[in-house]
Amino acid sequence: MLSVAGASARLGGREVLHGVDLDVGRGEWVTIIGPNGAGKSTLLRVITGLVRHGGEALIDGHRAAGLSARQRARLVATVAQSPIIPPGMLVRDYVLLGRTPHVPLLRAETALDHAATDDALAMLDLGTFARRRLDQLSGGERQRAFLARALAQDAPLLLLDEPTTALDISHKQDVLELVDELRRQRGLTVVSTMHDLSIAAQYADRMVLLARGTVVATGRPSEILTAPIIEQHYGASVQILPGPSGPVVAPIRPTSASRTTGE
Ligand SMILES: Nc1ncnc2c1ncn2[C@@H]1O[C@H](COP(=O)(O)OP(=O)(O)OP(=O)(O)O)[C@@H](O)[C@H]1O
């Protein structure tokens, strides 16, 4: 479904991605992890053609860079880390915007577009927010609206950049379960970035660890989430515990002796 080969990108005169390869099969969920500034968001932006890049990204066999915005939006729906919030826009109108790539030019949305919008609002538990202004919602309610818009878009590839950071634990589970269910029902392909490694491990078929703009490890969560790998690339002390649905990454405080001596 997605194939990225030798992707590189320069931002602000610095190479922030280099030689990145990524292959994601249809219906697969791949989570990109890595420390702050590793290049995770940039990689998602390369896939959506939002940054100039070297190498090639193929989406469903089409060169991403050669697609029009409309063609791309029919193939890829994205939830960015900080989407633009149109001032004063109502939640339902915002979610309806997800249907834009399906609405012929100079035509109005059809009953199908409105039904897809209402479905997406219901799936994200936003029915009662439909007539509220998006810019007046809480951070978590807003994040659910961003997801609703992406789901209304009904594209086969879903890119999620830290989609649950603002959500409480219950909504976090609901949203990720929903994405997983859609993946199984509709064969949706999911590429996400996530900092919460324990949650990420519960959903990802595969993890790709980026560090300093390059892929340093790829494999099943149990292969990537090991104390030595996390120590090496995040510089963090952790203990990996066996959880009921995947490895749990527990941070360990440095001992008081090493805090005082700096060891
Ligand atoms: N517009 C820009 N101009 C210059 N440098 C940029 C720009 N956008 C991102 N960068 C730099 O590129 C690098 C990769 O950024 P990116 O946002 O992809 O990292 P990330 O892995 O998603 O980080 P985080 O986990 O903090 O969200 C960072 O060092 C960042 O400072």
Automatic annotation (TrEMBL):
MF (Gene Ontology): ATP binding; ATP hydrolysis activity
Membrane-spanning ranges: none
CDD domains found in the cross-reference section: ABC_Iron-Siderophores_B12_Hemin
Record organism: Lolliginicoccus lacisalsi
Superkingdom field: Bacteria
Pfam families according to UniProt: ABC_tran (PF00005)
Every ABC transporter domain range: 2-237
Keywords: ATP-binding, Nucleotide-binding, Translocase, Transport
Listed SMART domains: AAA
Name the record gives this protein: ABC transporter ATP-binding protein
